[in-house]
């Protein structure tokens, strides 16, 4: 019998296709199945009526008040009312034919049940959880009815619901930011309206989905795309999943509103170019999915209608953004590095750049990419303190892309993540929000190519003479004299100093290859950093040797060893930090020194990165030659 019903339905479907469907339109298998199921519902309803079943004895009045349970096989105007509600909320029974929006039936069949199951599952917290269920059943009982009536009220033509307590989510329509009432044919990211969401004072709210009903005279096919934009960040947070039978749905949305806070979403859309002037378009917010077991107030909420117009100039502006290559290897610790670049080619008229949203990917830590700067034709127009998965540059003031080629660049400081990768790219056309200045309308950008994948190489170090290293004369008999100051910068990763060698060079004294001569001139040789830490041990009395704590002696110089390859130090310079090392010594009262200078000698494999574990060698750094006064000054410190 079921097979006969299918054959009968297919026959009717074939007739309807011949009569109503243009020959150029080839229907897919899912479309045919939808129409078959819809025809079966209509056929069943007709059979019931032909058999003399009274609708009044098994249904409610057209006012859409639900006074009974509904299930598969139910017949009545309350079924039609339920179907209409599901369709308006984006839970479409069918995309066309019986059961579709505006073509609801009075029979509860497989299409109604499937749509109701999805609705119940999406609202499981309120409908199913009290019953110990997590997946919809398709039975329209007291729990589902209570939820539906609470959020929608009577379905008998009411357009607003009563305000709920402050424990619900409040939705309001915000005035259009551009003040225009025109939608330009062929334009991109046209602002339809802004909607504010106010969370209750005691509960955080997460918006997981929205549905909009199309208003006006435009067809679905004339809407190319739709977006939801976080107004505060200027970032597109969702693109529509479908637009069918005038219902646009956004699912998998993760838009969080903290308790007592207000956040705003802007609805934008792209309009096809072949649209007749004078057509109208608007949108009504009909459904908000949240994790609340409370009501949502303010729905449905409709934007004002926009009137379609054509461009005032010969054509609307166009923007093509092509990725350029940048250096694919950058050392950790590099400042002001170019990490991305595009050439934006504009035609048809100048364009104002309003917002640029970049996607950061790779295994580099976004917090290591800092001080990002967006440049347009060499001029900085926006900035961010550090990277994140989405980097939204909101451009303030005038940032004009002139007709022809324009260069867009992003520079950043690479403060860490050695031996990792990063990529900064435009992933979607809507990530470029640009405005046609002549026609005062959004532009749909075209993206070409991919940004370069950058490898962050191991961090580097810079050892050099520090600013402020002393130059004045050194008095005999002075203690804790700073011979020279040296800076060591650990770029991109913490750097361990395994050992350092300090050289002191003299003129005028006796042969320093004999340690007793050195002892008359110098004692208590040490390295101290600007944080008060000592590097290695103090060499109180110079002894000849190559190990840590000893000095290699030559006629006019000695090289003192603080740590060694076999007895390394545990001293670490923090990441992206400069440490100032002071080479100090006590000067003997009976010294014969005429001049004295110091240096940190270039080391061999004396540094180790604490992230990459690379082995580096420090450079040589020399302090200036200073005269030694024969005037004895006891207790003079750091002359």
TrEMBL record:
<keyword id="KW-0732">Signal</keyword>
<dbReference type="InterPro" id="IPR002477">
    <property type="entry name" value="Peptidoglycan-bd-like"/>
</dbReference>
<feature type="domain" description="Peptidoglycan binding-like">
    <location>
        <begin position="76"/>
        <end position="123"/>
    </location>
</feature>
<feature type="signal peptide">
    <location>
        <begin position="1"/>
        <end position="26"/>
    </location>
</feature>
<dbReference type="InterPro" id="IPR036366">
    <property type="entry name" value="PGBDSf"/>
</dbReference>
<protein>
    <recommendedName>
        <fullName>Peptidoglycan binding-like domain-containing protein</fullName>
    </recommendedName>
</protein>
<dbReference type="Pfam" id="PF01471">
    <property type="entry name" value="PG_binding_1"/>
</dbReference>
<dbReference type="InterPro" id="IPR036365">
    <property type="entry name" value="PGBD-like_sf"/>
</dbReference>
